[in-house]
Design brief:
Structural class: alpha+beta
Radius of gyration: 36 Å
CATH architecture of the largest domain: Beta Barrel
Strand content: 25-35%
Largest sheet: 5 strands, mixed, barrel
CATH superfamily of the largest domain: Bacterial OB-fold
Distance between the termini: 108 Å
CATH class of the largest domain: Mainly Beta
Shape: rod-shaped
Oligomer: single chain
């Protein structure tokens, strides 16, 4: 009878040790999962935080300098007359957008001469424009087959 009790006791101890070993393995697996999850969250945060911060602010809207002094303005005719102009030239012109040709292309007049202008996709205005609205366009004059000004910024006057 004692032998049986001792045998049962040994079996119980062996089962207890096996359960303890399984619990220890389970605990180790949980720790590995927790460490992996923590590392994944940390890396994700490092990768996504700058992206979310950049998206949260309005970086697509450039902060333009609001200068109220004199600006060197070119006439459209002087741009068209400069036949030596093979490259692009930064220009500022003042006048009116007369009519829309395509989604982002307009005919512009400085009061004397007309030229085609193409508005950059990033341009967003808070007020509608009409042919009577006087504007100052900042952009790049391209003297090609169809001379045009690629507009980067519009200022309502």
């Amino acid at each position: 009878m004692n032998r049986r009790l001792i045998s049962n006791s040994v079996n119980i101890q062996a089962e207890h040790d096996e359960i303890a070993s399984l619990n220890k393995n389970t605990q180790i697996k949980k720790e590995i999962i927790m460490k992996t999850s923590t590392a994944f969250i940390a890396v994700s945060t490092l990768i996504l935080a700058p992206t979310l911060a950049f998206a949260g602010e309005k970086h697509h809207e450039r902060n333009q300098i609001q200068f109220n002094g004199p600006v060197e303005v070119s006439s459209v005719q002087s741009l068209l007359d400069d036949s030596t102009l093979f490259g692009d030239k930064d220009v500022v012109v003042e006048g009116h957008l007369l009519r829309q040709v395509r989604k982002d292309t307009f005919v512009f007049s400085d009061g004397k001469t007309e030229i085609q202008v193409e508005l950059d996709d990033d341009i967003q205005l808070n007020a509608p424009l009409d042919p009577q609205t006087k504007v100052r366009l900042y952009g790049e004059f391209e003297n090609g087959r169809t001379p045009e000004i690629e507009v980067d910024h519009i200022q309502l006057l």
